Known about the structure:
Number of strands: 11
Largest sheet: 8 strands, parallel, barrel
Number of helices: 9
Strand content: 15-25%
Distance between the termini: 50 Å
Shape: globular
Bound molecules: phosphoenolpyruvate, manganese (II) ion
Radius of gyration: 17 Å
Helix content: 25-40%
Number of domains: 1
Order of helices and strands: EEEHEHEHEHEHEHEHHEHE
Structural class: alpha/beta
Amino acid sequence: xxxxxxxxxxxxxxxxxxxxxxxxxxxxxxxxxxxxxxxxxxxxxxxxxxxxxxxxxxxxxxxxxxxxxxxxxxxxxxxxxxxxxxxxxxxxxxxxxxxxxxxxxxxxxxxxxxxxxxxxxxxxxxxxxxxxxxxxxxxxxxxxxxxxxxxxxxxxxxxxxxxxxxxxxxxxxxxxxxxxxxxxxxxxxxxxxxxxxxxxxxxxxxxxxxxxxxxxxxxxxxxxxxxxxxxxxxxxxxxxxxxxxxxxxxxxxxxxxxxxxxxxxxxxxxxxxxxxxxxxxxxxxxxxx
Length: 289
Ligand code: PEP
Ligand code: MN
């Protein structure tokens, strides 16, 4: 007999059809589309963010990621440019008609993030920050909920349930690797989660091979594998000068590496009758304002 599920609103039994989260004309969770979110780990300075954003826009990328509040393991590591970083990110995105995805670390910054960003990312370290999840249930912006690095699928879905319970249905799940005994990679990418979640929930599921592997050479193959597993999209880190990056340089793609991934992404998507959002032409100008 099937086990009774501990969650309700996120479950496929509760809602049969896919939830589609629309951002700047991209449809996350639409089974005819796959989306690509790309950008540096962190916003570092004007030149960096404008250079990489211009490059990404030429590839057709529609969603720009970049951390302004960075949850770093060490308190001595670069913590992000905060408000100034959000402002740069927004201006760069607006210049090239892109949407902004950026991390929210604490409740007191929600209003600020909602002002600057189109999608609020909850990082792996905050997946179980229940007051934060409850507060995000009250906003009218999509939430990209990363999997806790040691969280089970049930715990992750229950975290999403907190947000839906507050009234916000726009939740995008993001598999970003889990902790295992393996040390050759930063985390272990659990691609099983993708088809399993497609059964269990109506929410979109995307994959972040950058945090999952920690090694840039491993990112392209894991992107194709993620799409083959049925992911609704990819989140990747890319930097104009990875060797100079202030965070996560080793896992950041070179710009031309990302460019060379677009064709394979197209091919894998086409096998499933899906079209990458970077090939669509219906961008919305200035999505936030
Ligand atoms: C990130 O996307 O840069 C990040 C910090 O992600 P995670 O929370 O998955 O480690
Ligand atoms: Mn990162």
